[in-house]
Amino acid sequence: MDPRDSDLVRRVLAGDTAAFEGLVAAHSRAVFGLAYRITGNTAAAEDAVQETFLRAFRFLARFDQRAELGTWLHRIAVNAAIDLGRRSRRERAARIDLPDEGDRSLAEVPTGEAGPERRALAAEIRRRTAAALAGLSPSERAAFVLRHCEGRSIAEISSTLGKRDNATKQSIFRAVRKLRVALAPLVSAENQESLHEEPA
Question: What is the pTM of this model?
């Protein structure tokens, strides 16, 4: 574990609860980024960050200090984001607000100067990607994000989601298939190849 994290964890466990703010400051940006990719909107991601650190504080005594704190927080964040996604899905249709530049790991926009047509194409790709992601189950979305945006292995994703490898692969396959259908009219065959699941 990072020496700074180790020191802060030790201080929190010794009763210095103010030291937990240091852990939040060190890891909140990464947790937010992951939660945003899974939930698809800023408000839900912020809720997931809050829930992640509440759970982390509550269960810090159970954390194995030989492990990496960031990895532990990552797992908590994924589960918090999935829980929020399930709740949101039941309550209302999710609205996705992807960043302006879109997510290049989902659909590559050709390089070069961005003229009006290119900007319009990029906007439409973002819109269709957002709609397709909103249509995924929370589990499919999390598996897809962990694989194609975070670059995690099948084994890591399975461990994080509490699934068997085959179930994880199926979630990723379903997510990729839905995204390819949504983007097929807009993305060239060459770019669609980047969405194929590679062997673990």
Answer: 0.66
